[in-house]
Amino acid sequence: MLATAPHVAKIHPGKLPKYPNLEDNLFSWIIEKRENGNAVTRKLITRKAISLSKDQEFLRNNPGIAGFKFSSKWLDGFLGRYDLSQRRKTTVAQQLPSDLIEFQQSFLSYMLYMRMQHNYPLKYIGNMDETPMWFDLPSNTTINKKGEKTVSIRTTGHERTSFTVILGCMADGTKLPAVCIFKVKKILKEKFPDGIHIRANEKGWVNESEMLWWIEKVWTSRNPFGNPRSLLVLDGFRGHTVDSVKHRLIEKNTNIAIIPGGCTSKLQPLDVSINKSFKSKVN
User: Fold this and answer.
1) What are the φ/ψ torsions at residue 161 (nearest 5 degrees)?
2) What stretches of 149-229 adopt beta strand conformation (E)?
């Protein structure tokens, strides 16, 4: 042991595979999938292994495999033996402004000033954001060779067919009803889950009209006893900042805090902590 070369990660190579031919075929299948850009998950590998084990020729040569359990422990061992790991699809991050720190300090100072001036309770401080959703949601992770810098995943092409989901929440943790906006002229005559508003327009996005509707049906309806002084945090999307929207919010006794351009990945609460979890849950 003391004579072992320092670059060796572990002395014992680990338990040898019980069915090496099956694992070789499984590894070849994974490599083929990844070369085609397909996502490969742990569950998919287990299913493929079970499928390979049921091949009649393989059963004849390995009769004992009928009772073999392709467990999570086996899968961990298989991935380690073939130098595989779960990787996240590489993406291009948002380009942050060079004066990000200055923008952050200015925005946070404004938020503190507004809270000191109006003393909003947490239940009257809200955040609204829209996020695109696709009818095809390919996995963002795949089993892949360790060390590769680029990890791409092929899709069916339907990931371009999208609709918009408006999410909203209050600082005390209260969730506002979600709104789905579909890219059609009229609302579909389908049965949708309770508690979700359905809207439709030709762009499938939040425009001036949809924003005014949201203020009336979602933002205002959260408090049926009136419009107490509130604060709403929005990004600088044009649909949020047109004069008609600003005037309507003033009528509803609502102050607006606009997040500086290019800073949503750092300052937009829903974008930072909710949207990703929401999409993962849907996926």
Assistant:
1) -85, 110
2) 162-170, 175-182, 196-200
Contact between 222 and 168 under an 8 Å Cβ cutoff? The reply is: no
The residue behind tokens 């095809």 is 136
Share of the chain above pLDDT 70, in %: 89
C-beta separation of 65 from 58 below 8 A: yes
Strand segments (E) across the chain = 84-88, 125-134, 141-145, 162-170, 175-182, 196-200, 230-234, 254-258
Give the Å distances, CA to CA, from 35 to 90, 137, 150, 228: 15, 20, 12, 58
pTM across the whole model: 0.60
pLDDT in tens, 19-68: 888 999 999 999 988 887 788 899 999 999 999 998 888 888 888 888 88
158 neighbors 134 (Cβ within 8 angstroms): yes
